[in-house]
Amino acid sequence: MVQRTLRKASDNRIAILFVLGALSFSFVFSFCSREEPPVQTTLAGNERILISGSAAMTPLLKTLAREFSKKEPGIEMVFPPDSHSDAGIAGAAERKYDIGAISREMSPSEKEADLQYLHLAVDGMIFCTNENVTITNLTTNQIRHIYAGIITNWGQVGGPDAQIALIDRPEHTSAKIAFRATFLGNDFRVDPEAMVIERPYQVAESIQLIPYSIGYTALAEIVMEDLPVNVISVNGVEPTPANIQDGHYKFFRPLGLVLSPAPKASTMKFVNFVFSETGSKIIANSGYVPQRYEILVGIVPEQNLLVQSQRYEPLVEYLSHKLGEGFSVKLKLLPTYIEACRSLANGDINAAFLGSLAYATVRDYVTVLARPDYGGVSTYRGIVFVRADSGIESVEQMRGRRLVMGGKTTTAGYVFPLYYFKDKGISDYGTYFSEASFVGTHEDAILAVLEKRADVGAAKDLVYRMLVRENPALEQTVRILAQSPPVPSNAFVLRKNLTNPCFECHQRRARRTIVEEEISSKMDIALTIKDSLLGMSQDPEGKAALMALGNADRFLETTDSDYSELYGMLDEINLNPSDLLNVD
């Protein structure tokens, strides 16, 4: 067996030397052939778009360009010689290229350049072997040990008794960067016997030619070319687009485009096409996972968590459709308003439905857009209430009782009761009541009083009235002692300066001849979302979403001045709402 293994190892070395020679000749021939002038305008007065950068992206971009040219024959797509992501970024920054192609994340210094980045797709990376290796799965540790030179024979991992021929990529390539980030780490030393392949397309060629070899390459290349190689699962997870999209398969790299802040009209026509439904289908059919710009909308449960999610899901689907194929609007459920506020301040979410105090807490970070209207009601009041059979009819009778409030970042559950108590001469509610506590939701506060776990409660009147509609007998069980001035009901807020590359908004303009300087490369997300919200009542899908939202009639435009009553109460109790961001 030892002699057989040594003989196979010798055969592998001969094969590797042969392949290296063949690939070197191929590379030189390819390089020389690409020394031809890269740009030749074929039609007089033809517009052209120059794209270059990462060689890993060239096949996909050329496929997209061919389909785009069928729609826009007057625009010539030109691909100068490709190289690496660095060259794509530099070329776009120096305005040598209209679009730079990159297959890795931009470095901090690169992000400072006067460029905008468009995340195009996720490129799944796979391990594959020569077809004579019959194993189907490797663990992370086995992969590490193979590339460290600790595991050197396929028999050590359940394969044939043959020496492993190791194929690697140079350190500067996006494939190696992703490999290190996912499996190796920065200090890992790869077996020096590994054959390092420079060009991405040569990796799959080498694996096909070299017996018992293993390497890593793009899933899309295998999909597009239907190459005869053995694809390996990692930790039992197959490298499929679905597994990459849902996060189960971890080995991938980002593919993106970089372009100037004010691209040409022709460039934006191509960008529009790339991020259109047609472009996304081409990307997906090529083996990549198309990118949709994600807007996360935070919601906080005022009632049951599942019920709250079901109410808002049709609305975010409606907004996704209105923003277009390049965008995806999703819900993110958050336990409290303070978590929603912190997530907005930190940029972890892009938008939220916030109560009035929560909005005031993050007003420096967000713009308020609109709020729902229910039969002419678009505001709410805070209420202070007791059980009807409690015998409590005044503040004086509350002394020594148990107080429960709906949340420390709510107007109804915090600001109004403090304002009310101060107006009645109670400066320290903590000592006036025997117990004072905050619960998760307004519904929780109401139930605590009804179930006699508390004597006095503070909550939102809209939640109380919703519970009464579900159980009319509650109205005879609860006594409302005070209510606040009206403040805006939960409104849709969006982080300030949130802009994304404009895809759909250029299509209309691109159909007519205009001065290029008139074209902005970014869309006003806030305006688009606000217009979509305000137009819901005139749209069939919008009407269905309004109905799911508790039979709302429409959305009303909302501005900061609508919160003047709240600001007055905050001044009276001397509370700076931004301080609540630091509350535990």
Automatic annotation (TrEMBL):
GO cellular component: ATP-binding cassette (ABC) transporter complex
One Pfam family named in its UniProt record: PBP_like_2
Span of domain PBP: 46-277
Residues passing through the membrane, by range: none
Gene3D superfamilies per UniProt: Periplasmic binding protein-like II
InterPro entries: PBP_domain, PhnD, Phosphate_ABC_transporter
Family: Belongs to the phosphate/phosphite/phosphonate binding protein family.
Protein name in UniProt: Phosphate/phosphite/phosphonate ABC transporter substrate-binding protein
